[in-house]
Amino acid sequence: MVREGGRIVLGIESTAHTFGVGIASSSGEILANVRYVYKPREGGIHPREASQHHSRIAPKALKEALEHAGLRLRDLDGIAFSIGPGMGPCLRVGATIARALALKSGKPLIAVNHGVAHIEVGRLVTGCRDPVVLYVAGGNTLITGYLEGRYRIFGETLDIAAGNCLDVFGIKAGIGPMPAPEEYARRGGKFHPLPYRVKGMDVSFSGLLTAALKLLDKVRLEDLCLSITETVYSMLTETLERALAFAEKNEILLVGGLARSRRLREMIEAMAGLHNAEVYVVPPEYAGDNGAMIAWTGILQLMSGQVVEVEDSRIRPRYRIDEVEASWRRIGL
Amino acid sequence: MEEDRALSLAREAEVIRIGAEAVVSKLEWNGLKLVSKHRVPKPYRMPELDRWVRDRRTLHEAKVITLLRRLGVPCPAVIMIDRSTSTLYLQLIEGSELKKVLNRLPGERVDELALRLGEIVGRMHLGRVAHGDLTTSNIILDSRGRLFLIDFGLSMITDDLEELAVDIHLLDRSLDSVHHPVRSRFMRNFLKGYSRVVGREFMLKIVEKVKEIRRRGRYVEERRKKP
């Protein structure tokens, strides 16, 4: 199953509502990918309740992942965990378990940046090599790409995330979060201008959300859904276009929950066509938060010597991806 | 159809720059030397939205230029606006990008220009306009030794001091990367001229903001550079 001399790493993800355990091998196989998602009874994620869910489910998830891969703790070559960014109480659960496993087994501990892991698993499963990445999810909106040793942030939201903007709009409009606004948009016809805030490669959505909410009850909901989704997606596509030209790359990788949007993909594909660029989309099982992405990035870091001591493994809730030295890219991984 | 019209007006046009959102060309119109800046349609955007965005940006840029000229900031005059094609026709400034000539100038000349640029940017900032992309490629030195600012595509009218500080940060980064030997004397004189116009207190406030931006280390210079 795993080639002679190959490495195996177990990865733990617990940045927000997902507790995941994945196992990956250095040949690029995902041997296990177990996920348990905390669902709040109402409203958004409560960090403490989510962390209690993670603590409860952790032993079960670990056991299932090892069983699924047919491995025991001593077969592993390293223990990886997401050190950030994310919610403190949630991160602490994964970090604590990873430290304990590393100490017990005497295997190296590997601290992985959650955002970098999304990108790396995307590269692994889609086969793209050096993409400009649009990372759009409920809590994240950024455009990044590898340049001189790191994933540089070319553009990002200056206030709320794109997914958050559409979710909040849908909930306040009484139709629920995404994909509801996009479904309503398909029946829209008339376009209403909304604030279109692109600053270089950065975007801003809060003014747009406020303006759209003010129009509720004043215009047809379907038209408003059309206007807000078209505006948000156009802003993302335009900044992505700038980043593509700036970074001189010819691959685009879409990561995160909003990558599921049909219309956004259609727009990005049309833009990519103008520049002879290829579009890659991460399939659903690896698009959301998962342990496999942490395990795979753990492999890359292990192969390039990026491991940490337990005493240096404090969680980093505000860890930015451009703080990570992507040393595996330098050795062609 | 829209394209045809833009092209027919600019039949003799010579494209000088293809940017992320606009095509800039040189042309002659009734004996007048002009620059046209055509914001090209983006086929991925809904036509209504596309027209609206390009129209708004064209008007915004014209508005900022007009405001700046009133404030005494040297920049190319707006000759006409063709809203049907989102094209701005501007006075052609004959000269060279500061980027291309700065390294060849004698030291005292560098000091003079830096001082003068400081005054110009100071006047712009007093009017609460942030250029948004202030690098040495967007500063023109004409044949009579005068400085002009160009390309207000990313400009902003704002009360946010940070946006103004970004201008100075970007200028400093462009000096550091392309004009390293003159960077410190340039910035010293730039701030002298800037301070002369905006006052010492305001200048120090802005410099403090610039330091803050740098500390944040957000690779701003890379992200703002135009493709």
Characterise the protein shown here.
The complex is a heterodimer of chains A (about 325) and B (about 230). Chain A is α/β, with parallel strands linked by helices. Chain A folds into two domains: about 10-120 and about 285-330, Nucleotidyltransferase, domain 5, CATH 3.30.420.40; about 130-250, ATPase, nucleotide binding domain (Nucleotidyltransferase, domain 5), CATH 3.30.420.40. Chain A contains eleven helices and twelve strands. A five-stranded mixed beta sheet of chain A has the order 3-2-1-4-5, sandwiched between helices. In chain A, strands 8-7-6-11-12 form a five-stranded mixed beta sheet, sandwiched between helices. A two-stranded antiparallel sheet of chain A has the order 9-10. In chain A, a hairpin with a 4-residue loop joins β6 and β7 (about 140-145). Chain A is globular, with a radius of gyration of 20 Å. Chain B starts with a helix and ends with a helix. Chain B has helices at about 1-10, 45-70, 100, 105-125, 160-180, 185-200, 200-215, 220-225; strands spanning about 15-20, 20-30, 30-40, 80, 85-90, 95, 130, 140, 145-150, 155. In chain B, a hairpin with a 2-residue loop joins β2 (about 20-30) and β3. A five-stranded antiparallel beta sheet of chain B has the order 1-2-3-5-4, with helices on one face. In chain B, strands 6-8-9 form a three-stranded antiparallel beta sheet. The longest helix of chain B is centred in the first third of the chain and has 24 residues, at about 45-70. The chains are: A alpha/beta (about 325), B alpha+beta (about 230). Chains A and B meet through β8, α7 and α8 of A and α2 and α8 of B.
